[in-house]
Every structure is written in structure tokens, then in C-alpha cells.
Design goal:
By secondary structure, the chain is mainly α. The chain has one domain. Helices cover 78% and strands 0% of the residues. The chain contains four helices and no strands. Helix 1 packs antiparallel against helix 2, helix 1 packs across helix 4 and helix 2 runs antiparallel to helix 4.
Length: 89
């Protein structure tokens, strides 16, 4: 089954930006400082895990979409992780 080209990109941006926004909100709401703040902010925009592909295949969802999002988030992480490191250090 072919997937629309915008779906993987949308999922990728939601994963990366949503993760960073969630991490930022968490450290702000709880007043987390220091190394703990840096670790949470770094872990927020990490790529999607491969287990998502396994689960989508097991439960008959859309494994092609999951694989595309995993590939794109991993590729984009080559850019986003250094940028996040520059911002939090």
C-alpha cells in the first residue's frame, strides 16, 4: 500500500517537535535545573524507536508509515541532536 508523501513528514515533525515541546514544558513546570534539565531536553527530540514498527505490524496497522517515520526521524536526528546540544549547553 502506497502512503501519501506528507504523512511520514508530518509524523516526523510531530515526533521531533512534539518531543522537544513536551520536554521543555516538563522542565519548566517542574523547575528542573542542571544536568537533569539537559538530559530531559536532549531525550525529548530523539528519533522514534524501532519497536513502533514491530507493534504496528503485530497489530495490523500501518507498518510502512511507521518504518518511514523511523527512517526520517533517525535521519533528521543527525541535524536536530547537535542543534539541541548547542541550545542546552
Amino acid at each position: 500500500m502506497a502512503i501519501a508523501p506528507f504523512r511520514p513528514l508530518g509524523g516526523t515533525f510531530i515526533r521531533i517537535l512534539g518531543g522537544l515541546a513536551s520536554a521543555s514544558l516538563t522542565v519548566t513546570l517542574f523547575g528542573i535545573e542542571g544536568i537533569n534539565r539537559q538530559v530531559i531536553l536532549l531525550y525529548g527530540p530523539l528519533p522514534s524507536a524501532v519497536v513502533n514498527f514491530v507493534l504496528t505490524e503485530k497489530y495490523g496497522q500501518d507498518p510502512e508509515l511507521a518504518a518511514s517515520i523511523i527512517l526520517l526521524t533517525t535521519s533528521f536526528s543527525l541535524i536536530t541532536i547537535p542543534l539541541v546540544l548547542l541550545l542546552i549547553v
